[in-house]
Amino acid sequence: MDKDKKFExxxxxxxxTDRLDRTGFMEVVFCQGKSNSQLAEIYDTxxxxxxxxxxxxxxxxxxxxxxKVIPEIIYDxxxxxxxxxxxxxxxxxxxxxxxxxxxxxxxxxxAAKTAEFFGTKVNRIYDIGVSGLHRLLKFEKELKEANxxxxxxxxxxxxxxxxxxxxxxxxxxxxxxxxYGASLQGMTALLTMINSCANGISVVNIDNGYGAGYIxxxxxxxxxx
Amino acid sequence: MDKDKKFExxxxxxxxTDRLDRTGFMEVVFCQGKSNSQLAEIYDTxxxxxxxxxxxxxxxxxxxxxxKVIPEIIYDxxxxxxxxxxxxxxxxxxxxxxxxxxxxxxxxxxAAKTAEFFGTKVNRIYDIGVSGLHRLLKFEKELKEANxxxxxxxxxxxxxxxxxxxxxxxxxxxxxxxxYGASLQGMTALLTMINSCANGISVVNIDNGYGAGYIxxxxxxxxxx
Amino acid sequence: MDKDKKFExxxxxxxxTDRLDRTGFMEVVFCQGKSNSQLAEIYDTxxxxxxxxxxxxxxxxxxxxxxKVIPEIIYDxxxxxxxxxxxxxxxxxxxxxxxxxxxxxxxxxxAAKTAEFFGTKVNRIYDIGVSGLHRLLKFEKELKEANxxxxxxxxxxxxxxxxxxxxxxxxxxxxxxxxYGASLQGMTALLTMINSCANGISVVNIDNGYGAGYIxxxxxxxxxx
Amino acid sequence: MDKDKKFExxxxxxxxTDRLDRTGFMEVVFCQGKSNSQLAEIYDTxxxxxxxxxxxxxxxxxxxxxxKVIPEIIYDxxxxxxxxxxxxxxxxxxxxxxxxxxxxxxxxxxAAKTAEFFGTKVNRIYDIGVSGLHRLLKFEKELKEANxxxxxxxxxxxxxxxxxxxxxxxxxxxxxxxxYGASLQGMTALLTMINSCANGISVVNIDNGYGAGYIxxxxxxxxxx
Amino acid sequence: MDKDKKFExxxxxxxxTDRLDRTGFMEVVFCQGKSNSQLAEIYDTxxxxxxxxxxxxxxxxxxxxxxKVIPEIIYDxxxxxxxxxxxxxxxxxxxxxxxxxxxxxxxxxxAAKTAEFFGTKVNRIYDIGVSGLHRLLKFEKELKEANxxxxxxxxxxxxxxxxxxxxxxxxxxxxxxxxYGASLQGMTALLTMINSCANGISVVNIDNGYGAGYIxxxxxxxxxx
Amino acid sequence: MDKDKKFExxxxxxxxTDRLDRTGFMEVVFCQGKSNSQLAEIYDTxxxxxxxxxxxxxxxxxxxxxxKVIPEIIYDxxxxxxxxxxxxxxxxxxxxxxxxxxxxxxxxxxAAKTAEFFGTKVNRIYDIGVSGLHRLLKFEKELKEANxxxxxxxxxxxxxxxxxxxxxxxxxxxxxxxxYGASLQGMTALLTMINSCANGISVVNIDNGYGAGYIxxxxxxxxxx
Amino acid sequence: MDKDKKFExxxxxxxxTDRLDRTGFMEVVFCQGKSNSQLAEIYDTxxxxxxxxxxxxxxxxxxxxxxKVIPEIIYDxxxxxxxxxxxxxxxxxxxxxxxxxxxxxxxxxxAAKTAEFFGTKVNRIYDIGVSGLHRLLKFEKELKEANxxxxxxxxxxxxxxxxxxxxxxxxxxxxxxxxYGASLQGMTALLTMINSCANGISVVNIDNGYGAGYIxxxxxxxxxx
Amino acid sequence: MDKDKKFExxxxxxxxTDRLDRTGFMEVVFCQGKSNSQLAEIYDTxxxxxxxxxxxxxxxxxxxxxxKVIPEIIYDxxxxxxxxxxxxxxxxxxxxxxxxxxxxxxxxxxAAKTAEFFGTKVNRIYDIGVSGLHRLLKFEKELKEANxxxxxxxxxxxxxxxxxxxxxxxxxxxxxxxxYGASLQGMTALLTMINSCANGISVVNIDNGYGAGYIxxxxxxxxxx
Lengths: 225, 225, 225, 225, 225, 225, 225, 225
What we know:
- The structure is a homooctamer.
- By secondary structure, the first copy, chain A, is an alpha/beta fold.
- Chain A contains nine helices and eleven strands.
- The first copy, chain A, has two domains: 8-84, no CATH class; 92-224, Rossmann fold, CATH 3.40.50.1970.
- Helix content of chain A is 38%, strand content 20%.
- In chain A, the strands form three sheets. Chain A has a five-stranded parallel β-sheet. A four-stranded mixed β-sheet of chain A has the order 3-4-6-5, sandwiched between helices.
- In chain A, helix 4 (105-117) links the parallel strand 7 and strand 8 (120-125).
- Chain A binds chain H through residues 1, 16, 19, 22-25, 28, 30, 137, 140, 147, 165-170, 172, 190, 194-195, 197, 199-205, 211-212, 214-215, 218-219, 222-223, 225, and chain H through 1, 16, 19, 22-25, 28, 30, 137, 140, 147, 165-170, 172, 190, 194-195, 197, 199-205, 211-212, 214-215, 218-219, 222-223, 225.
């Protein structure tokens, strides 16, 4: 730990410009809760340093604010990602991002685009929830071939348990807040996944597609090394 | 399980067109969380396949979107159901849908209309909560005659416990989010019903009128077979 | 409601001797929390009235106490049931009681024996949890033929969700307290089952095999009527 | 508030000898968590001061310890009360203590004996839970005549809701820890009672028979004044 | 229980017109969750029957709707009560309604006005929370003279515990949703009050001023009888 | 406790004008939940009495209302503080207010400005969360020199645990509601901090910057005495 | 941060021998969960290094094990502390440790003895809970004189709120697990204290007397510096 | 999915003998909740099939029962693993298993031995919790070199957050039930880890060392492929 390595001190933020060296990933911006002016300054600084920039949970209003300083910034309304990416990125390996239902797609897209931003090749398989098992089994071969599966599900979150019994590689389970009543804004799906009787399943926060895409990238990098 | 049976792959959704054969019920659409364009395409596809279509938890905005492709679609503002039904459906058997209070009616209507869509004859008895027991007892005969009772209640959710001691057929208890404070958005009513000292009571999710109407139909079908 | 119909008043207990007429089921004893002398008197009274008696959640010590007044009483250590049954009971219909794992069997046996006590024919299928899907699918035909399935599962409780997509008749889901950590003594499995994306699933209390066996009997009776 | 009024300072305890004047009730001992020697000293001091003494939640071991200094002390194993009472107490008024089931009796006895210790006439009506409504209705007249009803119930705790619609005087609801699984050691019954749709119901802690007996006495005293 | 006593059947509601005879209180309307047309019909029916009408948790929009059929209806924006009262009501007895803070006043007013509607004389003492004990002690005499105290408090809800040690008559504790963070929308205050080490405290639902005013009236009636 | 010491009785509020003498801090206004007219009267009264006034959790609308009676009142939109301060306040001692992230700054500013209002010299160190440890270690010396550290963090709230191992003076940990999903609106950060394996950490309510600034001032005053 | 400073590596434990320099407190042993042999080795190592040793939450069995290697070790059964202390320690300053009830004393003793081990002069004031306010007010002067108050309370935990309004110095609130039912093993007291309307209160974990004694020492050291 | 692939049907258990082919891991036995005779039969069957056998959460009593049929079975009291392993297993790759404290070692050993059973080379680094950061930083190089880190921590569970900022490969976080009070038997540590502000962290169930060892093996296999 070299505390003298540089970080960019904006006072309200201390951008961790050493992170790429330490972890292999540049700093990603958590947009939620930041003021427009703070966000614009952070995006501007990171873009100048890295030639690209990536942020999660951005509101439309934040997008407009950042757009003023970076006109070419891209905002994906589905995943709430706000980013600018280097051209001609080469995607490698094989990660499957799948969902139980159609309503889980926004979180899945956050995962998929995060993985792609960091160089991972992603195969999307959406709406293969367990109440129609034949749909899932139809994709058994594709699921088995992935280095890592990101499994996104709300409501009771049973999808990862079924996948866990079918494949050999790790599954990163993402509970979503899709549901109502006793779904407890996703806590039920989270608890389901944490208690899975199947093996090879680890869990990230509710709606945390970003986190899952990050981990899938780590695993994929080890596999393609 | 024949994984090669068809499903309709819209990419963002894989419509389970085999479900009617497997379970006796066509696929019903969970509208919440789907985009307008996704929903319109799903409704259009299902209607073409089955000649009718049924969805739950639709917003007014979603209704407007679907209406553009299916002008004759019906939206019930009370129950938030969005559907189009074959004419001259013959309703059979006898299911009672009852509520503890007037404020529980939207959930009860979701249950009742679901059961009717799937061919069940429904007897509605609303506002017979336990704080005025004579109202409930007045309907004792009708309650006893039902093949299944759907009992809908919020706040402390005591209605199913009282019914359970009076009748011989199963009761599907539906907790509602009606209440405030320590009702915990319906969790209290759910816990009450799950712990009932009376027999013959099983429980579905908070505000899940649809699920209760579905199960009542299953039981009613067995009874009228 | 005829309040003048008899009940047997033992002061510490008021045995509901009218229940068989009202509901088709004689009163069953909840043994937990009753003193030995209370329990012995209740068993004795009910046995004299009905020629048989059935109680749940009995401890070994309670069994010894009741045995003193009813030497032929039967205690099943697995299910903690304490009962004496009329001979030559004819079992009818078809209910499946299945479990996700081996450790869920005590609860399943409570369900199965309750259903049998009340005249239901039971088909036991144990240890078909979703982490080895081929085991479950092997029994697809048997599962489809049941008038009602009692699905018993702990940990994440995903079994009913998978069954719900395969069969046409109702599933009574029983969460168990099997698991550890975030299984929260069965609350996680309960929440999973309550939020199932599959249809036809209603839920009873954690480890409440008795309740599930009762409801399965109600449904089975409607089916064989 | 006169801070100079006496209290008995035992260092580890400061006995509130002014309480009888302030509130009309002498100090009652919460035995749980106190050491044997502390308890013996407290009992001895209070008995000398008042000629009687009353404590709750005493273990058998604590009873033995106190017995050494007060040989005539009485221990009720059902209610876990440890007390010595003046002779020839005149009981006045009319309070009903009722339970939903037989297993709730220990808590009810704590309530009833507390009320009696403080001079209240108590009418016990046990095992009138709502799953056999005719039992409860049989006692409708007695219930209506009470100045206050203490309603003790575990599991789903529906009894107070039904009583609330029948009577004109206040009901003190006592949830008990009787039940299992999602009864959450009595939290479910507590929540049920707090959310009652019926009027006139207020709630005390789980298994707090003492508190209910105290409040019933306060109300009864106002009524007989 | 005479189930043949009349109730007014509006289909969506069954007005309990027998309640005044049974309990001494006419039916009060829980406005939340009822449609405008339902509410107007209920108010109209009750007003015709009783010459007065009283409802809780009404929105401004509901007030406007009811006003169309009952122009003289009164809406109190602070307490959200919607009512019309007979003139020249004589108020009797003595109930104190007090609050810990200024922000708790809306709930306190619901309690006070409910008690007054049912004929109780109310003494309001607001903002005497425990962080400035001298304020509370200044009113010690007034507090001691009340037949019943309604104690309204949010945040940590410590007020009833302090009052409980000072007075001889019952305290009805009302937790409020005032606070933030770990106040959990009032659950913390509710739990505090339920666990009070002081005696004579029973608890109603969060923000349930109505329920407390009702119980205070019951107790006050017994005292002035 | 002298209950006859003055308080200012506005009926809806009893301003604790004795508090400055008792505790060394004048009364601070909790604005949330107070009506505009109540707030204006309270501010006016306190300002006249003390020559300055300080309130927390004020909305913009409340600011406008108070501004009408106190035109020079200051509203800080970041921290939601509404105050007017004596000029030329001398700040003493040394308190560090630090945050884990940029989004935690509003709560930190509430803490910092509160401490400054009460005369404490504050050193702000923002965005030194544990995922880039070198940033935090860079400030090790400044952190060690503070008489008290206010550590503000949302999400998992790990910052105080790391600080606790580095410094000798007390840390007041403030969990924030920054995060999503299983952060449970700050409950997770609160639980983390309460369970810290490091020593010297005590915790205040979620987002309670004010409380932390108050305690830091108490400690700082003891240190500079 | 000098990572090369020594720590004692026992493999199963890495004793932080640098801690005294960094924080002013030597490492204290958390005994719970450690094996007998591990504990003995840790105690032996620390004692040799520092000439004294201090551990919390030790069982009697652990005491016996440590006694074999350190015959003069002292075990306090009340507080579960296991320690050996240098002779003739000079205690400075003034910290009050007070409790609401007698049953809270074990936790209070953990706090008091911890503070004393680290050189703090402690004034114990036990059983001054708020249900008999005159007891607490009797000690007002002593409470005001302390540099820091450790306030220990179970059940509803109201004691710190009342103290907070009386004194000028910081209060460290310690919730205890004393209570039953909805006290939720101390969570209720913790929540009460976290939400206190009084100022100057921060909170440590349930039953964490050690943590409170540590912080009180930190504050006391600043005051006596 | 070939449902006709063999499983071993013991009635009470259906051993998934196809799992090794599907997932690369043979079936592991969850011992908890199984009867002695069931366990012995399962171990015997698996051992005959695979030449080795591995089970988790075994009690000493279960060990004795299995030992009767497999005398050479090994029971590790620390980790509660019950197993028999092929000789001369070659361990490959590099996984670090680390703990925050000494009391977390039993869970860590479950993880480490599981990984080793499945062929992974494990580097154990115990007691490097964040309250003495220099210990952790001393091992920075070893931590960075691992293909996967299993981070085991109880109490507030901050360890993975600190690691996440230092390394490039995935961290599997295992919360433990070590702690007390508001640690909520490990739920706090679980929530902390799920909400980590650091990247690359996914979580398994409380005390689920087995699950973490399994996933670490999956990742390690991908890395060494």
